[in-house]
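Model the whole thing, not chain by chain.
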Amino acid sequence: MSTELIKVTINGKEFQVAKGARLIDVCREQGFNIPSFCYYADLALQASCRMCLVRIEKMPKLQTSCTITCTDGMVVTTESEEIEKAQRAMVEFLLANHPLDCPICDRGGECELQEMAFDWGNLEERFTERKNAQPEKYLSPIVANDPQRCILCKRCTRVCDEWMGEDAIEAGGRGANTVIGTFGGWLNCSECGNCIEVCPTGTLLDATYRHQARPWELQQTVTTCTYCSDGCQESVGSRAGEVMRVVARDRYVNGHNGEFLCIKGRFAHTFINDETRLRTPMIRYKKGGKLIPATWDEAVKFATRGLDKAAEAHGANSIAVVGSPRLTNESLYALKKFATELVGTENYTATDAFSLSPFFQNLGGQIATHRDIRHAKTIVLIGGEPEELQPFAGKQIRQAVRNGGAKLVIINSTPIRLKERATQFLHINPETEDAAVLAIFNQAHNELAARKMGVQETELIELRRTITNTEGDVVIMFGGEVSAEAQSLLAQMPYLFNKEGRRALLHPLPLYNNSVGATDMGLMYGKLGATEMLDAAGDSVHAMYVAGSFLPQHLTGREDSLGKLDFLVVQELFETETTRFADVVFPAASFAEADGTFTNSGGLVQRVRQTIPPVNQSKQDWVITAQLSKELGVDFGFQMSASAVFGEIAERIPAYAGLRYPLLKDETNPVQVKHATIEQRDLSQESEAIRARVEKMSDTATKINATPPVGHELFKIGTLTDKLPQMHLLASGNPKPPTLAVSPLYQITVDAGMKREAIGGD
Amino acid sequence: MSIIGDVIESTKAIIKGMGVTFSYIPKGKWTVEYPDEPVTVQPRYRGQHLLHVDEYGREKCVACFLCAAACPSECIYIIAKDDPRSPMERIGIEERYAEVYNIDYGRCIFCGYCVEACPKDAITHGYNFELSVYNRADLLKTKDDLLITKQVQSRNYRVASSEEDVDSEYKEV
């Protein structure tokens, strides 16, 4: 869009607007209310609802303002008898077949059609013919569908195509018989539920929240998602201390993700009020004995006594402090402070899948936010699988390519689904991502890298040409496959590619909501990593204080390591493999019960707000840490307020300097953390180390040729997603039930662990 | 003023007052002989609520929460539930029904807004007015107390027909 201004007259008033602006947007910005259903700013135009009609001079008929681009001297009327008559007629047509079952419709109360009918509907219906009734049905375990309510705005099909690139939901039939449906009647997609979100009526509904509550009695709290590193902003609807649903609807929240959420963020929130949440602190008085419920005072005393004993017997360094990348910045900061200032140990870490510390230690440029990805001109994706692990980043990439015309280069050992969109796909041998990084860093290594990666050298030359020919932003994204040395090279790449008119931005793809925050808080810079710490258990580490749990990948092959410890304190939501050996277990509060901040992969620090009071006797993680330290004789001075902890973070951590909660209040304009830029440095040591490693790689490795199925990572059952019964159905292949009229949950029993038993359907 | 004057004045006043009293003794009584005789209530009388069922005995309430939203004293508490069974096996007339439907008569002001708001004619005001209990907690009535099939109706009232002038029963007009 150019900055040139043109003159447009709307309802007799003159306005200066940018050339190329869309008429409906201009009218709405100037305060003229134009109704619409099918218009959605982010999507391709549809113009099927005919609600946004306006009169434009010198045009023969009423025009749809959503498809009109403003031209100089245009004279527009948005309100007149003629227009209102047309709009009222449109609503009458829409309601001709719409059932009047608002009392049982879950959308009732926040339905766009309902609102439109209040403003533009007639009091009486003139159609007396029978409505085209169709039974309600399920499209998948989590998408319920009532075809009769559909007004055919096709937002859902456009979202599925443009955002998700899946085309799972489509319109079938013609004219009055058009229905929104799926191929084979059953949705086999990533189940993101964005079609539910954008639906202006109750046609597509959240089946996990079906008939549970009405929107007006839910308390909507804006918070940040707790699953992946995208940090989507969402609105959590709760009632009487229970989380009922999660939405990202524009009327409640306007984060950087718009109305986008993925299956985990939107549906897998049932763990918050799950029955199996830890209820009270628990103490194991005897090794190998049972965990016995205790009071907070007892448990805190028992824990501090145990830690004290270990410190006296083996010294401060025998105590390890372990955080989790799922915790808030405040909790992680409290843990770091506990480790360094109170215990005085060098052994602290967070249980992340991989460490980003080499990346941040060498960071030579800016971190790309998700908005930058959307508007990038070239995207280089090394390893990772964003459409499964960081769905919002995946969506931004798809939109950058589709709507922004960006070039996408994918370097991956697996032919991931995103390769359909790629301009260039380098299908490399497994575990040779480092070779690709080396080649991009220094083209002298092209020949070696191409040989080990199993690609042509010309492909690497083309990749380099794509980057160097870019006018605009180049975003380099990388997953956990690249090694620590390769992370350092990547972090310094902006110095190689930054030029007049081109900016190289970096975007790491960590797996957890606060992986970046854990690095920022300094917890990832300890002496030992998570696996090394488990190996050292019983050897140099004798006591451990764990907030959260070790990941399965840390514990495989080391199942009994934690048993070798003299003393183990764990704070968790659920009983896990880590609490199995714990001497003291504290019930911790989940993200919905805590105040704090998360830092996402784009470096945006965003607020987490308390939605419901802590469940059972749980407390926020940093509160527990502060309580332990108080018992040990040191008062952290947090005054039991998360904002006081954040104030201290802002004082002590340079990247967060000057930040306060009030500055983070507006989720529409998130604040990016100012990570220190390291000056260009000599990386010959690192590149030499990578080269040596690459040379040892096999020349004749077999490539992975199978494209992984949809949801192979998304539907994986974790400690949190395990609590959503529908997730088990999806994880076991999303079978189509015998009848679509009843929720599959009632029809299919996946395993004995599922709570809701199958009962007969009709 | 003398004491004698005072006595005369007050005696006069007493005679005048008692005159009014005695003049009413031969007239008809206004007293309602409750509970010996049933009370006559207006057809539109707003007593304890009734939750209705349809001709097959299925509850009419679809747990739309409109009554709870309309209630000015916030005395209605509902928990909605999904009932996936076939129409005739269901508890209610629709897939959605109220698993819990409580009215707190300690708070209810009998304004009738819930009845007005109900889109399914599932809740109306009945005529039961004997709501006093010994324990405050008992003022909370559940679905078992409210459903028309379960509510115990008092025998101490009679509903007037629409033409009947109820007021004249008590007063000499």
